[in-house]
Design a protein that fits this description.
The protein is mainly α and 318 residues long. It contains 14 helices and 4 strands. Helix 3 runs antiparallel to helix 7. Helix content is 62%, strand content 3%. The protein has one domain: Heme Oxygenase, Chain A (Up-down Bundle), CATH 1.20.910. A hairpin with a 2-residue loop joins strand 3 and strand 4.
């Protein structure tokens, strides 16, 4: 088998995109996010708050994908080629991990060009640009960027759900489903954010300000202030998130082929992790929506999210 060839499973593939698409409503998610961004465009501080919350959450993704890939790679006893009789030649965890690790390479970047900088740095460029647009001084930025308790709790759930556990097939498959959902939803989210900012909001003061600036400085780098969004996805084309989602599907396909888990149980664990992330991400955007609506002062326990507008998740998330 040459490098890059796709392994063909001896059982029906479970990781077709249509299975995951059946668990969510992409258009409803897109509409929900566009509505939130549209609200934020009416108040520069609200826009800053929205982008801060989203970048704060997403800043954990790169390291977490790396941890998940490492935990898969450390689990050589769980993934074996059923056609290889020699045990020392049979473990395939590194092949499963490879397609998860691809995402963390993009997340951390290399070199000095914009596309090769860590996505966290690109996000900081966008946040700095919006602070300049909103005319926020350092003191005001520090005040607005204090993470509220609900955001810290959501981030902790994000960290907990993403890593998996070396040697524990259930925890790894839950995390792989979680990862696949993260990548699929990110493709939808960034496209919706771009559409809300540059298409729906084309006549906004932010859109006009965006045309006046081509660079912001973060550390030692000059950064296109909008590339953090467009690198991930645009309103009219896919970005890196779509590639990461395709790789996540391939990793799941390989895990199914190389593990000895019952196919039905395998699918249940993958779907459970997938649905867990969908629910968490909706919590994030629901809290952001409420926070910018309440002019930054409303604080409530995470459990009270049940009172907020809800996007229905198809299937049983329990």
């Amino acid at each position: 088998m040459t490098e890059g060839n796709k392994v063909q499973s001896t059982t029906p593939h479970i990781c077709q995109s249509s299975i995951f698409r059946s668990l969510v409503h992409p258009q409803e998610i897109s509409n929900f996010i566009e509505e939130i961004v549209g609200r934020a465009l009416t108040n520069p501080e609200a826009l800053y708050l929205l982008v801060h919350r989203y970048t704060h959450f997403n800043g954990y993704a790169g390291p977490l994908v790396g941890i998940l890939a490492a935990n898969i790679g450390l689990s050589r006893e769980l993934f074996h080629d059923p056609h290889e009789e020699i045990r020392s030649l049979a473990d395939r965890a590194s092949l499963v991990a490879r397609y998860v690790h691809n995402a963390t390479i993009d997340e951390h970047g290399m070199g000095i060009s914009n596309k090769k900088l860590p996505h966290r740095v690109l996000a900081q460029g966008t946040l700095k640009f919006i602070a300049e647009f909103a005319k926020l001084n350092g003191s005001r930025q520090n005040k607005l960027s204090q993470a509220p308790s609900w955001l810290s709790e959501i981030c902790q759930r994000f960290i907990s759900g993403y890593q998996g556990k070396a040697g524990d097939i259930e925890e790894l498959l839950l995390a792989m489903g979680f990862h696949a959902a993260s990548e699929m939803l990110a493709d939808i989210e960034y496209a919706a954010i771009d559409r809300a900012l540059r298409i729906n909001g084309k006549d906004s003061s932010f859109a006009r300000y965006l045309q006046t600036r081509t660079r912001v400085v973060v550390g030692d780098y000059q950064i296109n202030p909008y590339i953090w969004i467009t690198a991930h996805a645009c309103h009219d084309r896919h970005g890196v998130e779509h590639d990461h989602y395709e790789d996540a599907l391939r990793a799941i396909e390989m895990a199914e082929h190389y593990s000895s888990v019952d196919p039905k149980e395998f699918l249940n664990w993958i779907k459970k992790g997938f649905q867990k992330f969908i629910t968490l991400q909706h919590l994030l955007f629901s809290f952001i929506r409420e926070e910018i609506t309440e002019n930054y002062s409303y604080s409530f326990p995470l459990e009270e999210i049940v009172t907020l507008p809800s996007i229905q998740v198809r299937g049983d998330a329990q």
